[in-house]
Structures are given as C-alpha cells and as structure tokens.
Amino acid sequence: MASITYDGHSIIIDSRRVWLVSGTIDYARTPHQLWRDRIRAARQAGLNCIETAVCWNVHEPQPGKFNFEGDADLKAFVKLIATEGMWCILRPGPYVGDGYDMGGMPAWLLEMPEVKLRQACPAFLQVVARYLDAVMSQVKSLQVTESKPGPIVLVQNEHQWFAHHDDQAEGYIEVITRFLRESGCAVPLTNRNNLWQQVPGTIDTWHGDSNLFINCRQLRALEHDTPCIVSGLITGVTDTWNSSGDAVHSPDQLLRAMAAVSASGGMFNLAPFAGGTNFAFAAGRLTGSDDQFVTTDMAAHSPIDQTGTRTEKYIRTKRLCTFLSHFAPLMSHLHRAEHHTVAATTLSVIQQTGSQGSVVFVWRETDAKLNEVELTTPDGRTVPVHLGDSGVAWIVLNANLEGVATLDLTSLRPWAFVERRLLVLFGPAGAPALVSIDGTLISAVVPATAEPLAFQQDALTILILNEEQIDATYLHKGGLYVGAAGLDGADHPLPHPDFATYYAVDLDGKITRHKRDATPKRTVPRLGDWRYADVESYVNGTAPRFATLNGPRSLEACGADFGYGWYRVRLHRSRAKKCQLLLPQSGDRLHLYMEGKLKNILGVGPGATSGPLAVGAPGGDSDLVFLADNLGRFSQDLGIAWPKGLYGHLLDVKPVRLPKPKVTAEPRVDPFEFAGYVPRCSVVDRRPFPRHTFDVSLSSKKTLVLEFSGDRPRSIVLVNNKPAAIDMGAGVTVRVLLGDALHKGKNRITLAYFDESWPKFDVSKVLKLYEVVENLTEKADFWYARWQMPAAKSYIDLPRTTPNAPAFFRTTFSVSDATQPLMVDLNGMSKGQIFLNGYNVGRYFLSTHTGKKVPPQKRYYLPECWLSAEADNELILFDEHGKTPSRVKIV
After folding, report:
1. Chain centre distance of CA 401
2. Is the backbone of residue 388 left (phi > 0), alpha (psi -120 to 50) or beta?
C-alpha cells in the first residue's frame, strides 16, 4: 500500500517527490471511444497528470438513479489514465462550474423547495452525501493509496467557493470534506478558492490566468507547509454566442503564464487541455451580459480542439511540459528560500535553486522584439540565452541528471532526459550551443537543416534540435521521432504536413532517416436529399399532446430539465386591447406565436426582445403559443438556481418615472441573509457602502416591476426598509416583482450596494420601474406539451419554400472511413439542434430569425465514433425558424 503526503515543495509518494504537470480533460465532453486518444495526446505533450470534473447531472439524472456506463463510465476513464502511466486529479464537486449547465448540478434540485444550493442546507447536504458516496464507490479502489496503487493522487473539494463566511464553510465545505473521507477518499484534498475561504485539511490552490507569478509568490509565502499549485491555469476564453471568439491567450502568452508559475516553484493544471464539446444541452451560461450563453464547441482555444487536432497551443505547451516532467527531480527539490526582488517590466529573469540544481526562467513580458539576453551565472560565467520564436526560455545550472552526470550549464533549453541516456536540448536554428557536462564544455551550432545533431559525451547521448524540430518531436520507449505530428496507438509516427522525411533517433544517438508515406486522399461525404417534418400542430396549439397545467409552471416542473417545451395559454378577455406585454418570470427565450404566426421572441440573447412588447391582445377566448427555449442555466454566480420556461404570469405594464435618488453611504446590508453563498463577498465586511433611495408614491396598492440591466454593482433591494430581493449585477437583466411590501401612499425603494469597488455609474441607465396594469393570465388556461422528435413517417419531400416556423429536416450520407472526424457546415440555418444517428450533437446558433449573423461557431463536430461505414448515416436538424438546409454540407 503506497503512502502519499506533501510538504512545501511537492507531492510525495512513497518518499519519492512527484512534480505534477497536469491538464483538464472532462470525459463528459468527449465520447468514451475517444478518451484514450485525448489522454495519449496529453501524455505525448509531456503531461504526467489528467484532471477531470465529475458532473453530478451526468451521473444522477434522476434522484437516486445513478449512471456510470458508456460515456458516464468514470471508472473506465480513470483506468485509461493509469494505462498511459499518468496521475489523476479528481474533481467531484458537487459543483464544478466550467461552463456546464447549472455548474454540473442536476436540475431536479430546483424542484426541491427546501434545497439551497452550495450552502449549509441539510436538505442539500443529504443529496450531496448520496452523490459523493456513489462517486467514491466507483473510484476509491483507483487511489494511489490502495494495495494495487491507482492513478488518483488528489481530490478537489467543491470548486471556486469565492466567498468568506466561516459558519457557512464549516457547515458546507468542511462537511463535504467529511463526506469524501467517510466515502473512502484517502488521498490529499485540495480546494480552489483563491484564498477566499480556507478549509482545514485541504491544500489551498489558485485559479486564473493573470498575475500568476505574483499570486504564486503570495501563495507560497502564506502556505509554508503545502505545495504551490495553480489548479486552473486558464488556456483560453470560453466562447459564448454572439462573442468575437478571440482567445484570451495566444500560444506564446500561455507559455509565458506557464513559465511564470514554474518560475515561482509552482505546479499547474492547464484548464482545459482538451476542451471537448457541449453535446446535447450541456452548455451553461456565464455572467457579464445577457447573451453569455456557452457555445457547443468548448475547445476553440484549447491545446487540443474538439476533433482531437493538436493546435499551436499544444505545440507551445509541449515544449515546457516535457521539460517539467523529465526534470521533475530538479523542480520538486527547489528550496523555499526567501525570494529576491524581481524587476519585470520588459524582461523577467527568475532563478530557483535546490538540492538537485538550479533553474532559470527568462521571458519577455510583452511581445516586444527582444531575442537574446546574456546571463551571468553565480560563478561568473556568461551564458547567451536566445528567447527564440516564443519569447520564453529556461536553462539549468548544475542539474543532477539522475546520478549519471551533472549538466553544469547550457545556453539551450533542456527538453527531455530519456531513460538516463539521452539528453535532448533545443534552441533557435543557427544559434550557438554551449553545453557543459561534468566540467567539459562543448560548443556547437543548433542545426538549421531538418536533420538533428547528435553526439556522445561519456555515457550520455546529447541531441540538439531547433525549434521547428522540437515541435515535431515525440518520445517513445526506444528513443524519439523527429518530423512527426504525434504517435498512433502503436507508438508509430503520424505524418507531419511540414516534414516529408522523419528521423528515428535511438538512445545511443543513431539517426535513421525515413521517407514519409503519401497521405491518402479523403473523400468528403455528400449529403442526400433532405426531407421535412413540420410542427404546425404545436405552433397553432392543436396538437393532442398538450396537457392541462394548473397555472404557469417552469420547464423543470413540467419534466423538461433541458431543451425546449411548448406552452399554450388561453386568454379570456371581454374586449380586445393593446398591451405592453412583459414576462418578468420566464427564461430564457419564448417564441410567441399568435394565430400560428411568430410575433416575436421574448427574452435574452441575439434576436430576442427583453423589454415590454407591444401586442394587440384579442378579445374573447384566444390562444397564445410559446416555444420555450432553455438556452443554459448559469454556470456561476447567484442566478444558478433560476428556473426556465414560463413560470410566471403575462403582465400588461406601463413605465413609471423614477424620481431622483437620494445618495447615502451606510453600513453594508449583509447579503448572506439572502444566500449562504455570495461570491466575492465577506461576511465580516461592515464598512459603509453606497445606497440609492427612491421615494415612490402610489395612489392605491399596486404591483411594481423593478428591472435592472447593464453593468452595475450588486445590491440588496429594500422596500420600506425591509429586504425584498438581491440583484446579481454582472450585466445580467434581473426583474423583481414588488407587491406585498408596497402600500398606498409613499413607498421607499432602496438599492443597498455591497460590491467592494465599482466605478461611478448612472443608475437611471440601469434601472427601470413598471406598474402592472393587468395580470393578463390570472384567469387564463394553461397547457404544456413536451418537445420531441417526429416519427420517421412524418417526414415528407422538402417543399420549395418552408414557413418561418420550427421544423425538422432529415438527410442521410455514407462514409467509407468511420475513423476520421467530420464537421458539418450549417450555412443558411438559424438556430436549433443537430442529431447524428440518434446522438444529440448539440446546439447550433448561426443567425437570428431576422437573418442577423451570430458568431462565433460556424461548423459543428460529428464524432467519428458515432459514424457508420456499413450503413447510411442519418443527420437531423431541428431549426427554430424553418430555414431550408440547401447550403448545408459536410466538410
């Protein structure tokens, strides 16, 4: 049975120091048939550890009914990590965030009124205990502490609990720690709270992508007895619909961030490394504005994209990750000595020293054209260091090469030390190469040709490569290949488009040249004729599947945790009347149909109308039909428990002029009175905070709707000095119904802000007030119908024109090779869902109903494991606006 512990340097397994070089691969975002490919690609990039999130809603889709099979086979995924000789960090939640719908928690929690999410709530903790016990029963035998050691070395407790509230932490996060231990967790626990809330018995880690050297220094200064770990080094932005799609980090910026963590003596986890795909309705919503709904492609800015392709970020990360894995003894024995002051305006130079040698990291802080620096070593020698094409370099001094020799110094970047025989170094082509081994100084030049440079020095083989070569170099048991794009399942080199020849180098430096086989041409599948199935009976409200509701109900209450649902509302009115229609209790988008025609889309996101909609409400009995679209629950912040669909009444409103507010500063109202978890907030903070107070006079008791929108600080809404609601701010539209707390005469509405710092803003631009003129549906009848695929016999030949109404489209295509990924280009379509051979590929959004383009995603991944070479493949599109798929193609 192995032992695992840690100190201020690193993780320690059986008295051996382990330096983790990790990346996140979430099995829930990749079909299980492709797990091994993604894990192997991570290993070939130099990673020695995989972190993975365990999504509660994947494993317990219904209360008490667990699924750990197929794409949900957590145990199989962890075993594959072990097969590749890698460690594993498990992140079981119960909340995991990361752009998942509801942060990975199941939507059925919203139908338990006694449950309060992510806080010390007995009803919530009861179901959390059941879930964590089920998860640990799958993997507790795969921990490194078992008699047959498994790969799991760390388990994370919750995720990004960015608040400070000791009582809540004791009653929630510390209880989760106990649950994990009682369920069999025997490895060290971590938290990812960025020091907001420390948890006894766990390692504090950091999450972010900026100021990493500073934050890691602070973490090391505060936490003397635990290793410094950046458990979430962000590799790129999460794309949302209607965003630019620009990456947060360029490949070189990401490499600089990795170097900053390493230079501070910290380990990191690249999050994500292989981002995968939000299949079906798994994508969530982010804060920041009303249209921050996560796209289907979660890997647009990851080192490995959703098809498994290795991107430029993969190439850059491979350079440093391979070094860190192979020189783990050096990194894990660095002293926690007092750090020197560092100047880092244009260039950062950081040296760390330990019992196994020293490492010096050098990087340009910006993209300035600084290519070479001269370093003076402690013994007075001058070493020229070329920063190369990435602007990042690292050298080692007096490095112990596993007892074989000492690498005194080198002007090149060490990359790998293979089986105690082969030392691999690299630098810019044509640069001078200085290498000192056991006191013997060797001078050479980095090769500018395609062939590597190898020579012997005593018992060592030294291989020198240029930057282009190192990016196409992959290790295997007997040596390495230069000029490859990776290794296949049998560790054979894959063809690289830029190398017509590849080189096999063995441990003794023997170089064998091989001509690359010609890449076979691939045939692009052609789509067959399209067929069409309308949903006219749902649009006009005549479908027999509409079932009676007792008033408005959320999609969750109707049994639709994800996706769409149909509502029919029958108004009973004595006369026709023009209305300003507002649905303050709805989410996210409601397609309103009147007399079978689309009137508008009410809600948020591209193409939707957020404010009141002018409609002519007909007299007598009349039906309104809504197609409700759940575009994804919040993955973060205070809105995570907001319901979806039509869960409140339709209101006729009129605007009310807001008086000029009175501005004061008073002790902060405690936001934790509304929620046990309030992100970026401390319960002990009682400083004065600004308030805006409005005096509103009412001629009679009325219901008002207070609407927040745009950028603003968060606040507690006080009505007549009593707390009534909390506004989550963050650019998200929030509507608050004010009724019971109001009375005839003068009413005081106060916004008590509680964000620590916020620039001055014009409250009149973010706040609106409406008076409810009439509850249009107080006496209405409600029906609901489940959204579902039509039967095969429902499809007919595609008509020349299709109405601007929801419809399904079906076609088939054949493939000769079901081992290669495909993409479908949905040119000309609007918004909807994609199905391949019965699998829900995910949501697409290319344009609004008015034809306005919606970036950034244009093509959608068709996983190769879902294709068939033996039979026709079925492709079905549900398009919310019935756009004809005449320009859709496979690419």
Report:
1. 38
2. left
Structure tokens of 467? 């930057």
- Model confidence pLDDT, tens digit, residues 828-872: 999 999 999 999 999 999 999 999 999 999 999 999 999 999 999
Closest CA to 348 of 362, 369, 366, 368: 362
Q: Could you give the angle at which helices 122-139 and 74-83 cross, rounded to 10 degrees?
A: 40
Q: pLDDT per residue over 338-364, tens digit each? A: 566 666 678 899 999 999 999 999 998
Which tokens hold the place of 523? 């045939």
Query: How high is the pLDDT of residue 575?
Result: 83
Amino acid (one-letter) located at 686: R
Give CA separation, 303 vs 247, 313, 413, 549, 818, in Å: 12, 5, 21, 48, 24
Q: What is the DSSP letter of 634?
A: B
Q: What is the mean pLDDT of residues 565-589?
A: 94
Q: What percentage of the chain has pLDDT greater than the value 90? A: 89
Query: With b meaning 16 or more CB within 10 Å and e meaning fewer, what string describes 175-184?
Result: bbbebbeebb
Question: How far apart, in whole angstroms, are the C-alpha atoms of residue 764 and residue 665?
Answer: 18
Rounded CA-CA distance 804/598 in Å is: 8
The one-character DSSP state at 310 is B
Neighbours of 546 (CB within 10 A): 19
Three-class secondary structure assignment of 294-307: ECCECCCCCCECCC
Answer yes or no: are the C-beta atoms of 236 and 301 closer than 8 Å. Answer: yes
Q: Is the pLDDT of residue 754 over 90?
A: yes
Direct distance between the N- and C-terminal alpha carbons of the chain, in angstroms, rounded to an integer: 51
**In sequence order, what are the beta bridge partners of 690?**
665
Distance from C-alpha of 223 to C-alpha of 218, rounded to nearest angstrom: 8
pLDDT of 618 strictly over 80: no
Q: How far apart are CA 24 and CA 98, in angstroms?
A: 11
d(CA 16, CA 180): 26
**Taking Cα atoms as reference points, which of 758, 842, 805, 709 lies closest to residue 293?**
842
How big is the chain by its Cα radius of gyration, in Å?
30
8 A C-beta contact, residue 681 and residue 163: yes
Question: For residue 518, what pLDDT band results from cuts at 50, 70 and 90?
Answer: confident
